[in-house]
């Protein structure tokens, strides 16, 4: 346990992607002297993307990690105190709110902005991690454009997988949807559209055993598939693999204190980032499973800071 005295702040920001950094920029400029606590992976999901072409303000492609570094430095430059620590427990029952870090450091705050984000679920193959950003992606809206006239696979069977497969047909010449069962979980309307799409082929009862690729230049060349009923193994050639088996929001910390939906996403009021506890706000992928873009997360970070400022001035 650390013997550091309790750190008090008007605004405690937990998490450090586009939402957290933007909230910090706005809160710092409002003279609220925010503290931002970031964990072992500062910058969140964007740090695993290479080319970012859809963040407004940059005519040329930029790198995800670079964008996050810039946001971090901007937040620091306007007066955010940055602390590397992992918040292990919070108490939102009383005011000021309390948070305790793994270091033993105790934080108290008049308001809290939660921007802990979400993580894509992966297949947990060594090759999948190796080719992440080089043909393996968990976001079709981010990376689909790079697969113009190429063949890709989508792994999954829920709404997200079906939507990603259909989105990818705008660019790819062929999309194979690989599902481990013999029927999809996606809603019926979506399934109908999917079946009607000539560019999509569904491969049932199948799991991905391995992702095959080349090293120089680093890119995906194909996948190795296994039929779960026959155990038959086959390799197919393709250029990209999109993993769409869901996301997990980082909300364990707030269980039984904040309202969340059945998947664990924090619930906020309409047109607001306020949770069910006044003074506690949620921004970015921790509450948003619909858009999941850097720009929408940044927008919510701005909203959260402005709402916190208003809350504190009353």
Summarize the structure.
This protein has about 325 residues and is of the alpha/beta class. Helix content is about 25%, strand content about 30%. The chain has helices spanning about 20-30, 65-75, 125-130, 140-145, 160-170, 190-195, 295-314, and strands spanning about 5-15, 35-40, 50, 60-65, 80-85, 85-90, 95-100, 105-115, 120, 135, 150-155, 175-180, 200-205, 205-215, 220-225, 235, 240-245, 245-250, 280.
| Main sheet attributes: strand count, strand direction, barrel closure | 7 strands, mixed
| Overall geometry | elongated
Distance between the termini: 36 Å
Mean pLDDT: 95
What share of residues is helical?
Answer: 10-25%
Class from helix and strand fractions? alpha/beta
Q: What portion of residues belong to β-strands?
A: 25-35%
The Rg value, from CA coordinates, equals 21 Å
Helix-strand topology string: EHEEEHEEEEEHEHEHEHEEEEEEEH
Separate helix tally: 7
Report the uncertain regions: none
Features:
seven-stranded mixed beta sheet; five-stranded parallel beta sheet; 7 helices; alpha/beta
Account of the protein in words:
This protein is of the alpha/beta class and 314 residues long. It is 24% helix and 30% strand. The chain contains 7 helices and 19 strands. Strands 1, 2, 5, 6, 7, 8 and 19 form a 7-stranded mixed sheet that branches. A 5-stranded parallel sheet has the order 10-17-11-12-13, with helices on one face. β1, α1 (18-29) and β2 (35-38) form a beta-alpha-beta unit. α1 runs parallel beside α2, α1 (18-29) runs parallel beside α7 and α5 runs parallel beside α6 (188-196). The protein is elongated, with a radius of gyration of 21 Å. The chain starts with 6 loop residues before the first strand and ends with a helix.
């Amino acid at each position: 346990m650390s013997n550091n005295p309790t750190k008090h702040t008007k605004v405690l920001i937990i998490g450090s992607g586009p939402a957290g950094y933007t909230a910090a920029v706005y809160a710092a400029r409002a003279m609220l002297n925010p503290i931002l606590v970031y964990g072992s992976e500062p910058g969140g999901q964007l740090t695993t993307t290479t080319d970012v072409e859809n963040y407004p303000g940059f005519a040329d492609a930029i790198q995800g990690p670079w964008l996050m570094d810039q946001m971090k430095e901007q937040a620091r430059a306007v007066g955010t105190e940055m602390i590397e620590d992992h918040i292990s427990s919070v108490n939102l029952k009383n005011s000021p709110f309390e948070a305790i870090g793994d270091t033993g450091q105790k934080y108290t705050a008049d308001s809290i902005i939660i921007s802990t984000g979400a993580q894509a679920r992966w297949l947990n193959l060594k090759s999948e991690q190796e080719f992440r950003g080089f043909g393996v992606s968990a976001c079709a809206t981010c990376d689909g454009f790079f697969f113009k006239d190429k063949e890709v696979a989508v792994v999954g069977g829920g709404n997200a997988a079906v939507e990603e497969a259909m989105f990818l047909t705008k660019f790819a010449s062929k999309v194979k949807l690989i599902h481990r069962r013999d029927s999809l979980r996606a809603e019926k309307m979506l399934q109908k559209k999917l079946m009607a799409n000539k560019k999509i082929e569904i491969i049932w009862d199948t799991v991905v055993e391995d992702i095959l690729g080349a090293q120089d230049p680093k890119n995906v060349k194909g996948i190795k598939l296994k039929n779960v009923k026959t155990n038959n193994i086959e390799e197919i050639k393709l250029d990209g693999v999109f993993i769409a088996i869901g996301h997990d929001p980082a909300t364990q910390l707030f269980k039984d204190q904040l309202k969340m939906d059945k998947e664990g996403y924090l619930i906020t009021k309409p047109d607001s980032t306020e949770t069910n506890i006044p003074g506690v706000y949620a921004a970015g992928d921790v509450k948003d499973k619909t858009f999941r873009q850097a720009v929408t997360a940044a927008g919510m970070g701005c909203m959260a800071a402005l709402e916190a400022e208003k809350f504190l001035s009353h």
